[in-house]
Amino acid sequence: MFENLANKLQGALKKLRGQAILSESNIAGAMAEIREALLDADVNVEVADEFVRTVSGECLGESVLRSVSPGQQAVKIVYDKLVEFMGAADAPLADNAFPNVILMVGLHGSGKTTTSAKLALYLKARNKKVMMAACDVYRPAAIDQLEILGRDNGIPVHAERGNPDVASIAGNAVAAAKEKHFDYLILDTAGRLQIDTSMVQELIRLKQVTNAGEVLLVADAALGQQAVSVAKHFNDALSLTGVVLTKLDGDARGGAAVSIRKVAGCPIKFVGLGEKLENLDVFHPDRMASRILGMGDIVSLVEKAAEKFDQEESERLKQKLKKNEFDLNDFLGQLRQMSRLGGIETILKFLPGGGKLAELPDLDPKQFKRMEAIICSMTKAERENVDLIDLSRKKRIAKGCGCGIEEVGRLVKQFSTMKTMMKRNGLLGRMMSGAAPLSTAMPGYRNPGSRGSNFTPPKKKRKKH
Ligand SMILES: Nc1nc2c(ncn2[C@@H]2O[C@H](COP(=O)(O)OP(=O)(O)OP(=O)(O)O)[C@@H](O)[C@H]2O)c(=O)[nH]1
Ligand SMILES: [Mg+2]
């Protein structure tokens, strides 16, 4: 996801980060690279220009130029701006009606039906009573598709075969949901190849009849700029309450995610990351920005773990993280468990710099086994304290598991980066409780408002020769 954008932005930021002094010219150079990266990612040109304009303005501000680490401050500004452009805060689903009606709209094939079922399962997992309604009457197979999804996942579906009047089906569905005390009713609607008047009229009618509190546009991220203009048109006609950006798993560019909020004016609420029904994530602008900038996403990792693994284990892990006692034994446990969630790529994507590692051409499921072998070749003391692992230990570990020293070094480095982030005053615990924004975990970020105690830049280790 977003590999191209992430690589290019990280490249531009690396240069900035290393600068002891920022000048107009080195900022201009970095901004030109950032602009190019955004445009290559298919970010809307006006959005890209506004992004670069505001970031450079802030980078040239007095407080940045005079700060102790201007380069790092500039990186922080880029991060904050990226979060702001993608939506600043999470946008939860409305939950104030009985039933809460969610109208799913979008172009043909964007993923409406799949996402309806994904969303139903998401809500069901949160103890909500959910019903779906088949409001695509134009394709008989559409009703079958929704009914099969409902049947396979234990979600009731309201369907009326033979009734061509979509508005009456929807009205009946709301009445049924009310009667049976459902918390949510998700309406799957028909898609068209392009937005046309009759489609819009039908959706407006559906919105009125059902009094839908959520009108979610399901948009295919792979369409890039086109997805953004579709969002704008739908928003103008229907006042969307949010967007579900689907097929992000196949989107290396990321332009839609960065531009939709600014251009269409409505928040991304969820993202679709695969065909399976569990591949739906809540969209967190801050976490997405930290992933794009290669800062990892440990909070998501913990939450994902919490959903899939038994609560006790995940609580134990959270406590260890809070106390900064998370060691390679836990990491190994997580590796083993995460492999059940979709392989090693899944866990790596969430670790700082892991996006890059996941891209390595030789990375395959066997890689996971190799990481396991590396950790298993370590002594108990080494697993509990990676700082012990010097060159001679690396050699011994490499020999023990039959891999290269550099592989051992890479794994240790990944883990150490993660630990450095967590060390900051139990930062992870505060992040998870919402008391500290993820931005404060950013490598190299010095909180301007703090009294200077919460962050010490990671010291560069001198290589022993
Ligand atoms: N890779 C990937 N595929 C997805 C995702 N969401 C949906 N799909 C796939 O996209 C295709 C179309 O999905 P549908 O849910 O049928 O799309 P729709 O919008 O209901 O289509 P119409 O009803 O024909 O308008 C299916 O093959 C889905 O499996 C996603 O997040 N990632
Ligand atoms: Mg459909």
Report on the architecture of this protein.
The chain is α/β, with parallel strands linked by helices. It folds into 3 domains: 3-86, SRP54, nucleotide-binding domain (Four Helix Bundle (Hemerythrin (Met), subunit A), Up-down Bundle); 100-286, P-loop containing nucleotide triphosphate hydrolases (Rossmann fold, 3-Layer(aba) Sandwich); 298-441, Orthogonal Bundle (434 Repressor (Amino-terminal Domain)). Helices cover 55% and strands 9% of the residues. It has 22 helices and 8 strands. An 8-stranded mixed beta sheet has the order 3-2-4-1-5-6-7-8, with helices on both faces. Helix 1 packs antiparallel against helix 5 and helix 5 packs across helix 12 (285-292). The protein is globular, with a radius of gyration of 24 Å. Magnesium ion binds next to helix 6.
Strand arrangement in the largest pleated sheet: 3-2-4-1-5-6-7-8
Terminal Cα span: 39 Å
**Any idea how many domains?**
3
The structural class is alpha/beta
Question: What's the SSE pattern?
Answer: HHHHHEHEHEHEHEHEHEEHHHHHHHHHHH
CATH superfamily of the largest domain: P-loop containing nucleotide triphosphate hydrolases
Question: What is the fold-level CATH name, i.e. the topology of the largest domain?
Answer: Rossmann fold
Percentage of residues in helical conformation: 40-55%
Largest sheet: 8 strands, mixed
For the record, the CATH architecture of the largest domain stands as: 3-Layer(aba) Sandwich
Indicate the mean pLDDT: 79
CATH class category name of the largest domain: Alpha Beta
Radius of gyration: 24 Å
Strand content: 5-15%
What is the overall silhouette? globular
Small molecules in complex: guanosine-5'-triphosphate, magnesium ion
The total count of strands amounts to: 8
